[in-house]
Amino acid sequence: MIFGSIQALRLHANDNVVIALRDLAKGSELHEFGMTLQSDVPRGHKLAIKPLSIGDNVIRYGQIIGQATQPIAVAEHVHVHNMGMGEHLQSYAFSEQSVPLPAIAPPRTFNGYHRANGRVGTRNYLGILTSVNCAGSVARFIEEAASKTDFLKAYPNIDGIVPIVHSSGCGMSGDGEGYQTLHRTLSGYAQNPNFGGILLVGLGCEVMQVSSLVGERELGADGAFRYMTIQSEGGTRKTIEKGLQELHLIAEQANKVQRAPAPVSEIMVGMQCGGSDGYSGITANPALGYASDLLVRHGGTTILSETSEVYGAEHLLTRRAVSEAVGQKLVNRIHWWEDYCARNGGEMDNNPSPGNKKGGLTTILEKSLGAVAKSGSAPLTDVYLFAEKIDKKGFVFMDSPGFDPCSVTGQVASGANMIIFTTGRGSVSGYKPTPCIKLATNTDMYRRLEEDMDLNCGDIVSGNVSIEDKGTELFELIIRIASGEETKSEALGYGGAEFVPWQIGAVM
Q: What are the E-state strand segments in 251-343?
């Protein structure tokens, strides 16, 4: 689909609103819809093409995104001042639209780091993983001490050292959802294929014990996994000294691994959107959806998350589930979220954010319908808990909050070796050890933040680029980044502060 130079876009034949593709002034003529604007309408915002009475459904993408809260005239701006969220129940129609995508041959390859367990990394980092916040400073001290000695000069195949620090690990119950979620997250990071080696550091007396994280796991012949506690080593200075010694042992093994051809089926992409705007659902998200389908057709894996940001659009995913059981797993997570919000005095429609609304989004239903476009058309293979190891190929869903750093943390813990992040307002984060490709939904923002954006999808509207061509361009970029090409966030040094485990339950 190419949008060309039209002023407003109707996304579906059943829609009663259209999307402004540029700032439109009151009195402007929209000849393609035969109407004169009744008010100013910013780019990315909606305007009515049919009169709406109080309670009438507002339709975008052919789906309900809310209801009129006051009468709305033809050519009038439709936004938070005259629209809200009400009834939106839809049929789940489990698996009715689950159609396998045809495989693409011959298989494509990328140059990655082959691990002993058969997985393939797109990067080769050393990680200093902490079991508890109390060990966070020491982990950073070890990394700083290594940097002062030009540690990595002797290990040219290693991309860097990443201290993985967080704000939890103690003051919590030793079982239940909160503990299990953090345990999965830390264990998952330790096993992400983008790490060539891990040094696990604890304090010694915390609830999240190092011994529990290690479990029955052997260190392995390559010696690329080591662990220690500050209390056992005798304090800060001795732990730093021992930590440097352990890092050298780990690095000697990790440095032996070099990039080698691997099938594209070993790429696992975590898909995210943040700072969304009215363009997200018509440019970057569907382009990512097309690239997602290409990757799935090559045997790869893509992960959709942010459960609170698919709310109201989950019926589009349940219809693509490979079975009713898989679809019901997603519905169960939606119900969990409704209960979670009720328990904590929140509402699912607390999202969108002020920035989302300024960009043209009005309700969570509208935001969710645009967000689901990232998933393309592939069948939904399975649904996973936050940070649960993903063990199936194809398009999958991982439960998570909509808070981007937290959601990405779960995807990396689940095994993602690549992140793709669409943004309309602008995002400047990164997620070591996993490279993050940033997609701009509109050309104006891309030009302002070009040093942070990897690909402009705004030319789907401002130029003559089709969603299919942009998705293919993104697929080729995925292969290049997986093979070692640097992303903008990597060049800027991002990724050291965005590890954010999901904290559930009481802090005691």
A: 260-263, 268-273, 301-304
Buried b (16+ CB within 10 A) or exposed e, 323-349: eeebbebbbebbeebeebbeeeeeebb
Tens digit of pLDDT for each residue in 276-296? 888 999 999 999 999 999 999
3-class secondary structure for 409-444?
HHHHHHCCCEEEEEECCCCCCCECCECEEEEECCHH
Strand locations in 35-92 (E): 35-36, 46-48, 57-60, 63-68, 77-78, 83-84
Q: What span, in angstroms and rounded, lies between the C-alpha atoms of 5 and 422?
A: 23
pLDDT digits (tens, 9 = 90+) for 85-127: 877 778 899 999 999 999 999 989 999 999 999 999 999 999 9
Alpha carbon of 108 to those of 124, 194, 414: distances in Å? 21, 20, 24
Evaluate whether 389 touches 414 at the Cβ level (below 8 Å). yes
Give the separation between CA 127 and CA 112, rounded to whole angstroms: 18
Query: What are the start-end ranges of the H helices in 483-507?
Result: 488-491
* Token duo for residue 111: 């140059």
Sequence letter at residue 111: N
